[in-house]
Design brief:
Elements (H helix, E strand, L loop, with lengths): L17 E14 L2 E8 L2 E8 L5 H6 L5 E10 L7 E12 L12 H6 L1 H4 L3 H23 L3 E2 L5 E2 L11 E4 L2 E5 L4 H11 L1 E9 L12 E10 L3 H22 L1 H6 L4 H5 L7 E3 H10 L12 H8 L6 E4 L21 E6 L4 E8 L4 H10 L7 H10 L7 E7 H9 L20
Parallel strand pairs: 3-5, 6-10, 12-13
Antiparallel strand pairs: 1-2, 1-4, 2-3, 4-5, 7-9, 8-9, 10-11, 11-16, 13-14, 14-15, 15-16
Helix pairs in contact: 4-6, 4-13
The chain binds 4-amino-1,4-dioxobutan-2-aminium adenosine-5'-monophosphate and magnesium ion (MG).
Magnesium ion (MG) binds next to β15.
């Protein structure tokens, strides 16, 4: 298309002038020789009026929802129109017709997922995807400003960073392999050279339950740094989350408001974030009437009870040795590890999992056994143990679920809308 079209968001600058527009038919209705058509492009919507004296009026009257069209017309200020402007159409063309667009109002979530390839055009999903794009951009910005290198690590591996229960198995030239649950173990090798590294990459978890915050394929923002201890890691995490939230508030306010987000809840997200230990958490839960014994994990009811006490994200630090993963460094108390979960406010649950890493070969090998890594699989982990033998240094890192962050920032109630094509237990199409 060689037209000099303008973007719909620019329309106010062209009051009284003739413009060319292109986009899709968002809504359409006709009455007595006049067609009212709401045109959509990636920047917004505008009402366009086609009278029966206009060339192409018949085509306009027959146009279906979501047809792609081009038009020329004059911009007029009109208080009654959505957005405050209207276009008096002088010329109208259909580019790609659309008959019987299958999505109507009030469709079930499952129906909308079946038609995700079309539902993706909705205003709601567009607002969320714009915010998501801002979020990933801000994560890159944050790490690069602090001297972190972006690195990629293998997706096909033979290791289970986060335990065996959520592994996706694939065939690898006659051998068994898995889709990566995290980049962490390879990143630990990398930072003995680059010192500071980060990534935003897909992670895979065969989550067998259907919840509002688990995907089978999600995007994982991870960081790892040499010489970084547990405390510094938590500082980095709260700085990162604050940077992203404040950046989205500044750059995507319009979309947040369109989604109905209460901005005050985001404005307060600035460091420092409160910290509690696992032990303190057990006490707090007890006061809420929830009994959890040493070593137990927490779920949605516990997250809800705890989040009542915090307006900002909060850390739960120092979990019992066997409640987390094999690679975490033991604390001085001998019964906990130097780790943290960052929990989101408003009961959105876990956003980040991080820890200082065990560097003592003996302790590490003992833990690997305790965590059920079999002798026959040890060859795949040999590289990981090896790192500790040659110039090992204290180091820490963490992983943040991009979709979890987008879900909370947008204030939406299900993770599926934070990614263009969600993968969950019962769905791999479209
Ligand atoms: O707590 P997790 O399992 O930690 C790790 O994978 C570490 N190896 C990270 C590291 O230290 N480099 O996962 C980290 C985060 C969680 O806090 C959560 O936000 C997200 O990843 N996450 C998921 N997001 C969506 N769907 C799932 N199934 C997720 N599982 C974890
Ligand atoms: Mg975790």
């Amino acid at each position: 298309m060689n037209m000099q079209t303008i973007a719909i968001e620019e329309i106010s600058k062209h009051t009284g002038k003739k413009v060319d527009l292109r986009g899709w038919v968002h809504r359409i209705r006709s009455s007595k020789g006049i067609v009212f058509l709401v045109l959509r492009d990636s920047t917004g919507i505008v009402q366009c009026v086609v009278k029966d004296t206009v060339p192409g009026f018949e085509k306009a009257a027959e146009t279906g929802m979501e047809a792609s069209v081009t038009l020329s017309g004059t911009v007029r200020k009109d208080q009654r129109a959505p957005g405050g402007y209207e276009v008096d159409v002088k010329k109208f063309e259909v580019v790609g017709p659309s008959d019987n667009f299958p999505i109507r109002e009030f469709q079930s979530p499952e129906f909308l997922l079946d038609y995700r390839h079309l539902w993706i055009r909705s205003q709601r999903i567009q607002h969320i995807l714009k915010i998501r794009s801002e979020v990933t951009g801000l994560i890159h910005e944050f790490f690069r400003k602090r001297g972190y290198y972006e690195i990629q690590s293998p997706i096909l591996t033979q290791i289970a960073c986060e335990g065996g229960s959520t592994l996706f198995e694939v065939k690898y030239f006659g051998e068994k392999a898995f889709l990566a649950q995290s980049w962490q173990l390879h990143a630990e090798a990398v930072i003995h050279g680059l010192e500071k590294a980060y990534c935003i990459a897909p992670s895979f978890r065969a989550e067998k339950s259907r919840t509002r915050k688990h995907l089978a394929e999600y995007w994982h923002a991870e960081a790892e740094a040499a010489w970084m201890e547990h405390e510094d890691s938590m500082k980095l995490q709260e700085d990162l989350v604050s940077y992203v939230v404040q950046g989205v508030l500044k750059r995507r306010k319009k979309e947040l408001l369109e989604l109905g987000r209460d901005l005050k809840k985001l404005e307060v997200i600035k460091p420092p974030f409160p910290r509690i230990t696992y032990e303190k958490m057990i006490e707090m839960l007890k006061k809420e009437g929830i009994r959890r014994k040493w070593g137990d994990d927490i779920g949605v009811p516990e997250e809800k009870a705890l989040s009542k006490h915090f307006r900002k994200p909060f850390f739960i630090e120092k979990w019992p040795v066997h409640s987390k993963a094999f690679y975490m460094k033991e604390s001085d108390d001998g019964k906990t590890v130097l780790c943290d979960d960052m929990m989101m406010p408003e009961a959105y649950g876990e956003l980040i999992g991080g820890s200082e890493r065990e560097t003592d070969v003996k302790v590490l090998e003992k833990r690997m056994k305790e965590f059920g890594i079999k002798e026959k699989d040890m060859k795949s982990y040999q590289f990981y143990v090896d790192i500790r033998k040659y110039g090992s240094v204290p180091h820490s890192g963490f992983g943040m679920g991009v979709e979890r962050l987008v879900m909370w920032i947008c204030g939406i109630d299900h993770i599926r809308d934070t990614i263009a094509f969600p993968r969950v237990m019962n769905r791999i199409n479209p």
